[in-house]
Every structure is written in structure tokens, then in C-alpha cells.
From TrEMBL:
Residues 3-187 form the O-methyltransferase C-terminal domain. GO terms for biological process: methylation. GO terms for molecular function: O-methyltransferase activity; S-adenosylmethionine-dependent methyltransferase activity. Keywords: Methyltransferase, S-adenosyl-L-methionine, Transferase. InterPro entries: COMT-like, COMT_C, SAM-dependent_MTases_sf. SUPFAM superfamilies: S-adenosyl-L-methionine-dependent methyltransferases. This is O-methyltransferase COMT-type, S-adenosyl-L-methionine-dependent methyltransferase. The keyword S-adenosyl-L-methionine applies. The keyword Glycoprotein does not apply. It holds the Pfam family Methyltransf_2. It comes from Helianthus annuus (Common sunflower).
Amino acid sequence: MFWDLAGQEPKLNQLFNEAMASDARLVTSVILKHCGGVFEGIESIIDVGGGTGTVAEAIAKAFPNIRCISFDLPHVVNGLVGSKNLSYIGGDMFEAIPKADALLLKSILHDRSDEECIKILKQCKEAIPSKDNGGKLIIIDMVVNVNKEENELLETQLLFDMLMMSLVTGRERNEKDWAKLFDDAGYTDYKITPILGFRSVIEVYP
């Protein structure tokens, strides 16, 4: 599997992490500018599969009162140095996720099959408080067929589908697909906010 190979090949691991960091900088800047409200009221947040911490670092700088953690496989985060409100934890999202007020999944679930997504979502649900106590999961991912203008982006959608199916076990999903995943994982509600092309911010509540 790609993730196992990345753990064994330092050059591949570095290239992949750099590519993800570049994408993260663009998307995060848009989110903080137009959807920063999703982070209001949160005291702690963990970026699950957060790589070298590009997203967590941006949130930490924008919201100094939020304790931010980038959580990823040990070979990804080993040796990384945090700051006052940014730290790194190594682990496996399929086994256990540290607890926080909110969790963030950026471009994680579209890499995975439905079965893997449900496992990850259930692990996330165990790590956050109830909705009444302010707990939520923030997903930044592709949601196809949200905007009427997306017919012009059909080729891009098909390209991402082919990439996800050939490189990993995932695919791109529409709102109905996402809703089923959330329901199967035991969540009660969600809200989708389109932000950039096919990408949306999805707030999911336990």
C-alpha cells in the first residue's frame, strides 16, 4: 500500500509530504479567510493525518488561544519541533486518536474506501466531546455536485476519481455519499460549506 511504501522510502516520504504541505498552504489560507468561524469556541484541535503540520501551524498562528496538534504516523512527525501552541504526536488513526475539542481531517477520507472511512470516523467520534459540549469533526475534502457550475469541472472530477482509485483505495463523494458515511459512523448532523472548486468544509457533529 502507498502509505507503507512511503514509510520505507525516505525520498518518496519527503516528496509526498512536501506536495501535501503545498496544497495545504493554499487551502488553509482560503479557509482561514472565508471560513475562520469554524474554529471559534475551540480550545484544542488535532489535525489527524496532519503531516508535517502545515495546517496545524496556520491555525495556531491565526488562533493563539487554540492548542493545535498535528497527529500522523511516527516516521512523518519524528524530529519535528512545535511552538507555544503547536505540538506533534505520532500514532495510527486506525488504532487510537488523542482527545481534543475538535478534530480535523484534511484530504484524508477521499484516499480511503467506505469501510476505512467509517473506521476512521468512529475513532474520531470517540476522541471528541458530545455536540452539546462543543465537540465536532471538521473535514476538508472534495464534495462533488455541490455547485451547479461543476459541470465545467467534470474532467477534473474524473481525474481525481482515477487517481484515488489507482493510487489508493478511495474515491470522490457527493453529499449523499458523505451523509451515509456519517450516519453509518454514528454522527447526528453535518453542515457543508463549499470553499474552493470541489473542496468544501464539512462540520460533523457526534
